[in-house]
Amino acid sequence: QVQLVESGGGLVQPGGSLRLSCAASGSIFSIYAMGWYRQAPGKQRELVARRTNSGSTNYADSVKGRFTISRDNAKNTVYLQMNSLKPEDTAVYYCHLVPTIGTVGYWGQGTQVTVSS
């Protein structure tokens, strides 16, 4: 089994920054991709950013230029640096790990990000 532990969420004012971390542990034999999704109240969960083991990244249009995903392969940890935060970024952010292409993968428990003055 794989465990994902997220940290770094909280309350921040518009224009502020936060850095989320997600550490993976357990029976990790391979990692194809790690990424971040978010879900706001009343909305579907959506992809925020993802990074594959080849270094390829993709971002939601709404966060391009503001958020940066990075990964420390040695620590099986993925980060999400969030700058210029907006109230519409408010959501629960979930870490996701895909072991191999085509698998469902694993989810973290989620961390709340609230952007408000």
C-alpha-based Rg, rounded: 14 Å
Cα shape: globular
Contiguous helical run count: 0
Ends distance: 40 Å
Structural class: mainly beta
Task: Classify the helix fraction into a percent range.
Answer: under 10%
> What's the mean pLDDT score?
95
Order of helices and strands: EEEEEEEEEEE
- Unreliable stretches covering 5 or more consecutive residues: none
Secondary structure tally: strands: 11
Query: What percent strand?
Result: over 45%
Summarize the biggest pleated sheet.
Answer: 7 strands, mixed
Report on the architecture of this protein:
0% of the residues lie in helices and 53% in strands. The chain has 117 residues and is an all-beta fold. Strands 2, 4, 5, 6, 9, 10 and 11 form a seven-stranded mixed sheet that branches.
